[in-house]
Amino acid sequence: MTALIQVDQLEKTFLMHQFGEKRITGCRGIGFTAHKGEFLGITGQSGSGKSTIIKCIYRTYLPSSGHIRYQSERFGLLDLADAPDRTMLAIRKEEIGYVSQFLSIMPRMTALEFVMEPLLDMGKNETKARLRARDMLAHFNLREALWDTYPKTFSGGEKLRLNLARAMARQSRLLLLDEPTASLDEASKETVKERINDLKKSGTTMIGIFHDLDFMESVVDRTYKLEHGLLEEVM
After folding, report:
1. In the CATH scheme, what architecture does the domain 3-234 have?
2. Structural Rg of the chain based on CA atoms
3. Residue among 232, 227, 229, 233 nearest 26 (CA)
4. What are 148-202's pLDDT values in tens digits?
5. Which of 52, 56, 66, 110 could form a disulfide with 26 if both were Cys (CB 3.0 to 4.6 A apart)?
6. How do the domains of the chain map onto residue ranges?
7. Which stretches make up the ABC transporter domain (predicted)?
8. Angle at which helices 111-121 and 126-139 pack, to 10 degrees?
9. pLDDT digits (tens, 9 = 90+) for 125-139
10. Residue 215 half-sphere exposure, CB side, CA atoms within 13 Å?
11. In this structure, are residues 170 and 121 in contact, taking their beta carbons and an 8 Å threshold?
């Protein structure tokens, strides 16, 4: 079976100028492979480097060394660790989704427009994008009264559900999830679990980082633990 993504000897270090140019290791020697429709879960203490791995794959962090070989539908096999910025922008737009527990949104964009935006960028017409966005907002139990309002007033849980609606509406080939159940109640977690299982059945590959181990174990296929910057599979 051909891997969708293969990470090999990934390392990220940060240069901290305020400490006399001290180098801090975010992660090192990271390696794993994920296939189509597979969900990998990564655990570890806060500050262990879990988010660093996800951000290197998404390339909001530029890896210091190593390889992230990704089988793109548009570009073929490429290394996300050193792919051109223009290629990465296209990959994010068309193939790789990212869910953060934090909401980043234009101040004058409504919740409905926020979910529609990536669908329009992918070429869907406005009518289909609007219908899909409305379905996803309803699926994640965001009240219809909120759809045409600005999300800066939303609660933490509402913002996270909005992020999930936006990312999962796209049906990306690869979906990266950074604490996807933070701030969610049990009913909302069940909704997320349903959608994750739907995405797995449709072939979406997912890599997620978690503190909620019970939820993680209910959805992932394989688990890795990050400790002291090193990643090991939990058997």
Report:
1. 3-Layer(aba) Sandwich (3.40)
2. 18
3. 229
4. 999 888 888 888 889 889 988 888 999 999 988 887 888 888 888 888 898 899 9
5. 52
6. 3-234
7. 5-234
8. 130
9. 999 999 999 999 999
10. 23
11. no
* Both structure tokens of 89: 């922008």
Single-letter residue type at 155: S
Tokens standing for residue 141: 């139990």
Fill in the amino acid letter for 60. Answer: T
Give the β-pairing of 39-43 and 205-209: parallel
Structure tokens at 128: 């289909």
Which residue from 211, 201, 189, 223 is spatially nearest to 40, judged by alpha carbons?
A: 223
Is residue 20 over pLDDT 80? no
Cα–Cα dist 71/79, whole Å = 9
3-state SS string for the chain: CCEEEEEEEEEEEEEEHHHCCEEEEEEEEEEEEEECCCEEEEECCCCCCHHHHHHHHHCCCCCCEEEEEEEECCCEEEECCCCCHHHHHHHHHHCEEEECCCCCCCCCCCHHHHHHHHHHHCCCCHHHHHHHHHHHHHHCCCCHHHCCCCHHHCCHHHHHHHHHHHHHHCCCCEEEEECCCCCCCHHHHHHHHHHHHHHHHHCCEEEEECCCHHHHHHHCCEEEEEECCEEEEEC
Amino acid type, 108:
R
User: Quick check: 146 and 104 in contact, CB under 8 A?
Assistant: no
Q: Could you tell me the pTM of the whole model?
A: 0.89
Token reading at 170: 């796209």
The Cα 101–Cα 180 span in angstroms is: 6
